[in-house]
Amino acid sequence: MPNSSRPSTGPARLLREVCAVLRAGPAEGRTVRELARTVGAGDRTLSRLFRRVFGRTPGSHRDGP
Questions:
Q1: Which residues contact 31 (CB under 8 A, 6 or more apart)?
Q2: What count of Cα atoms within 13 Å lies in the side-chain half-sphere of residue 52?
Q3: Is the pLDDT of residue 52 over 50?
Q4: pTM summary value
Q5: How far is Cα 3 from Cα 15, in angstroms, rounded to an integer?
Q6: Which of 17, 25, 31, 36 is deepest in the core (most CB within 10 A)?
Q7: Cβ(43)–Cβ(30) under 8 Å?
Q8: How confident is the model at residue 61 (pLDDT cuts 50, 70, 90)?
Q9: d(CA 32, CA 44)
Q10: Which pLDDT belongs to residue 35?
């Protein structure tokens, strides 16, 4: 049985953290680089991950439909 008290790692953690940042302050207009630094990832890594999972970049996700 997994230990639920252990913090998760990897792509799922990055996406959860970035989405939480975007929900907390969507009007702040952070760049992809700033979002990536906030969660401890590279900006290209974050962009590729977002595009693979959501079909769009973090910036377009932040800006809405």
A1: 59
A2: 9
A3: yes
A4: 0.69
A5: 20
A6: 36
A7: no
A8: low
A9: 9
A10: 87
CA triple 55-42-47, angle to 5 deg: 10
Q: Give every CB contact of residue 52 below 8 A, 6+ residues apart in sequence.
A: none
Whether the pLDDT of residue 3 is over 50: the answer is: no
For residue 36, give every residue at least 6 positions away whose Cβ sits within 8 Å of its Cβ, in sequence order, or none. 42, 43, 45, 46
* Tokens 């792509």 belong to residue: 11
Cα end-to-end distance, the chain, whole Å: 39
- Over 60: is that where the pLDDT of 7 sits? no
Taking the CA of residue 6 as centre, how many other CA atoms within 13 Å lie in the half-sphere pointing to its CB?
6
